[in-house]
């Protein structure tokens, strides 16, 4: 590990903490005009500074009756896998109209680190129940609408015009935070899946935490296609070790 740092290559745990945020912010693949599809799978390539391939990401959205199930997986690739294995998994349940989340779960496996969080929300009572590694933590009362890190950008895409800013309250169970999503400009980007005309959007937390603290110079940008599909084709997160970039490789969709 010391020799890697000496060569200027950052610790892989930092890569993937950035990559997880990248993937969480890429879950907003909602077609505002035509309506969200019943099924969608998005595959991404994750890299550091668009130079070193560090992992793969997958997002799925499934409609089940009146709710949507959102799933995300992030995993490391060789040679990263050899000395720091990453297997992160996230699942979210949201109301069919994306007006609040119902449950949020994450399982983090990064090297020897293990973490299992579960969050449940009852919009009728406003009660937020948070379990860390199976143990109940402090409960909260929050009026709806309320979102988790997964569903907040779904709400942005479904409830807001792509050329206007919106604000949402979100929680990971432990913290409450206000998220502001602001469109910046139109750009054309090229990713493995092709060339796309996009809206460049910036989500900002009121209290940036960890490697994304604003005093560290961090920022996050997402590029959504400027068409009926509103596909998130690219994401870039600037953190203290450099840039973590996610680029769309493929998309499967069923209406």
Please tell me about this protein's structure.
This protein is mainly beta and 255 residues long. The chain has one domain (2-254): Beta Barrel (YmcC-like fold), CATH 2.40.360. It has four helices and 15 strands. The longest helix has 13 residues, at 12-24.
Distance between the termini: 47 Å
Helix content: 10-25%
Tell me the quaternary state: single chain
Number of DSSP E strands: 15
Which ranges are low-confidence, i.e. pLDDT below 50, for 5 or more consecutive residues? 1-9, 28-33, 208-215
**Total number of domains:** 1
Summed over residues and divided by their number, the pLDDT gives a mean of 82
How many helical elements?
Answer: 4
Class of secondary structure makeup: mainly beta
Helix and strand element order: HHEEEHEEEEEEHEEEEEE
Largest sheet: 15 strands, antiparallel
Quick structural gist:
With 255 residues, the protein is mainly beta.
Secondary structure layout plus pairing:
Layout: H1 2-6, H2 12-24, E1 39-48, E2 52-64, E3 67-76, H3 80-83, E4 87-95, E5 101-110, E6 113-122, E7 127-132, E8 135-136, E9 140-141, H4 152-159, E10 166-171, E11 176-191, E12 194-205, E13 219-225, E14 232-239, E15 242-254
Antiparallel strand pairs: 1-2, 1-15, 2-3, 3-4, 4-5, 5-6, 6-7, 7-8, 7-9, 10-11, 11-12, 12-13, 13-14, 14-15
Keywords:
255 residues, mainly beta, YmcC-like fold, 15-stranded antiparallel sheet, 4 helices, 15 strands, 12% helix, disordered N terminus
């Amino acid at each position: 590990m010391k020799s890697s740092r000496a060569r200027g290559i950052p610790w892989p745990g930092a890569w993937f903490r950035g990559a997880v945020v990248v993937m969480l912010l890429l879950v907003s693949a909602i077609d505002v005009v035509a309506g969200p599809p019943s099924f969608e799978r998005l595959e991404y390539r994750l890299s550091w500074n668009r130079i070193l391939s560090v992992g793969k990401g997958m997002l799925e959205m499934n409609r089940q009756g009146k709710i949507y199930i959102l799933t995300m997986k992030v995993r490391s690739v060789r040679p990263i896998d050899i000395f720091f294995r990453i297997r992160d998994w996230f699942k979210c349940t949201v109301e069919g109209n994306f007006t609040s989340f119902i449950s949020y779960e994450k399982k983090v496996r990064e090297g020897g680190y293990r973490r299992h969080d579960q969050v449940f929300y009852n919009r009728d009572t406003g009660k937020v129940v948070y379990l860390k590694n199976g143990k109940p933590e402090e409960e909260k009362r929050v009026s709806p609408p309320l979102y988790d890190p997964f569903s907040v950008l779904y709400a942005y895409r479904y409830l807001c015009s792509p050329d206007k800013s919106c604000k949402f309250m979100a929680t990971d169970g432990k913290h409450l935070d206000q998220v502001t999503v602001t469109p910046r400009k139109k750009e054309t980007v090229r990713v493995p899946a092709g060339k796309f005309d996009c809206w460049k959007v910036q989500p900002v937390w009121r209290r940036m935490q960890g490697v994304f603290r604003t005093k560290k110079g961090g920022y996050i940008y997402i590029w959504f296609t400027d068409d009926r599909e509103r596909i998130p084709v690219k994401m870039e997160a600037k953190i203290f070790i450099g840039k973590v970039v996610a680029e769309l490789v493929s998309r499967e969709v069923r209406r």
